[in-house]
Specification:
Structural class: alpha/beta
Radius of gyration: 25 Å
Shape: elongated
Distance between the termini: 31 Å
Strand content: 5-15%
CATH architecture of the largest domain: 3-Layer(aba) Sandwich
Number of helices: 18
Largest sheet: 6 strands, parallel
Length: about 375
């Protein structure tokens, strides 16, 4: 697999860090989950299946687990010994914590100069807000994303996806892989400062002109992305379900309005988003209210138009396209699990669903770095490291 031979120390918790290291583990990296004596918090979040929470399994699968108390001198020394034989370290403590613990990059690189050390945080390691706590919704609020998701009355709607968490995870993953590639040329590691705020804000190039050119925030009701364009919108069907249109290219407009018997609206629909589009929007809303969601799905089957029914998550996990892509896999013992989205032809990722028990690999990992004396200790004793 692509990352075979790469060892990763994962000190992160919850979603961004664990998700990025899980992606690496899926593709062959040896990821060692470094847990505090109390364990990863997501172990206890949600309904357990086969003894593990689904949240924990989906973010920690294919990893090993060692319990280390980083507040002790011996625990910090164990981490340093592991770092000497590792390629990547990922941590998500609040800025300043690793300095107080004595495991910051500046100190670690003295013993592990090849390490790629990645810090994932809400606001980054610099700036006036570096020390403030935040989760996904705070970052979405600070980057303007929450304001873009307001309803027709201007009231913000809670985001359905933790976009800041996932943007941070993917940004960190790309950065780590870049640093590993560069290390092949220089022999030296690097430090990577990934902020969720930076990562999400970087997802706005397609509407940055509203601010950079006009000096104003986008008005969602007048923009293509948020309701100002009838061919990029959501419509209620007769049964209370919803359908979506997602393409305003001329060919899609012509195909749909011709099929619906309203070619007279084609020229108007081709104009820019905004209030002038209301006649087209009103016609489509009335037309789509005449049939059920599934009836429209069948009607659209042979029509070349960007269309999709709105599925709930349960329906999405069972969709034939999702199953054909192996993005949901069924395990008779551990239950269903998500697949890996990075699909190589020659070296596919691991599709196993095993996630480690707390400290499950402590003995093995410590012996591999020379702590053979722990062999006779119980699991409880070993977790004191």
């Amino acid at each position: 697999m692509k990352l075979s031979g790469v060892r990763v120390l994962d000190l992160s918790q919850y979603l961004p860090g664990p998700y990025l290291t899980r992606m690496m583990a899926d593709h062959g990296a040896e990821v060692i989950k470094v847990e505090a004596p109390g364990g990863e918090p997501s172990r206890k979040m949600g309904t357990p299946v086969a003894g593990q929470s689904v949240y924990f399994r989906e973010t920690q699968r294919n990893k090993k687990s060692i319990v280390i108390d980083l507040k002790t001198e011996v625990g910090r020394e164990v981490l340093m010994r592991l770092a000497e034989e590792s390629d990547v370290l990922v941590e998500s403590f609040r800025p300043g914590v690793v300095d107080r613990l004595g495991i910051a990059y500046a100190k670690m690189r003295e013993r592990a100069p090849r390490i790629v050390y990645c810090s994932v945080s809400a606001f980054g390691q610099t700036g006036p807000m570096r020390s403030r706590p935040a989760h996904d919704i705070s970052i979405q609020a600070m980057t303007g994303f929450l304001a873009l998701g307001c309803d027709a009355h201007g009231t913000p709607v809670l985001p359905g996806v933790p976009a800041a968490d996932m943007a941070g995870a993917l940004t960190a993953l790309v950065g780590i892989l870049m640093a590993l590639l560069r290390r092949e040329q220089t022999g030296q590691g690097d430090y990577l400062d990934v902020a969720m705020l930076d990562s999400l804000l970087a997802w706005t190039p397609h509407f940055a002109d509203r601010v950079f050119v006009h000096g104003k925030a986008p008005v969602p009701a007048n923009e293509r992305w948020w309701g100002g364009a009838p061919f990029y919108n959501v419509y209620r069907a007769a049964d209370g379900g919803y359908i979506t249109l997602g393409g305003s290219e001329p060919k899609f407009i012509e195909n749909l309005l011709t099929a619906l018997g309203r070619p007279d609206l084609i020229s108007l629909a081709g104009e820019g988003p905004g209030p002038q589009q209301e006649p087209v929007h009103a016609f489509l809303a009335e037309a789509f209210a005449a049939r059920t969601r599934d009836e429209w799905t069948e009607w659209f089957r042979t029509l070349d138009v960007c269309y999709a029914p709105m599925l709930n998550l349960n329906e999405a996990y069972r969709d034939p396209q999702v199953r054909a892509r192996n993005m949901v896999l069924d395990d008779p013992e551990a239950g269903s699990r998500l697949g890996t989205p990075i699909k190589f032809a020659a070296e596919p990722g691991r599709e196993t669903g095993h996630a480690p028990g707390i400290g499950e690999n402590t003995h093995e990992i410590l012996e591999n770095i020379g702590y053979a004396a722990v062999a006779g200790k119980s699991s409880r004793d070993r977790s004191a490291f």
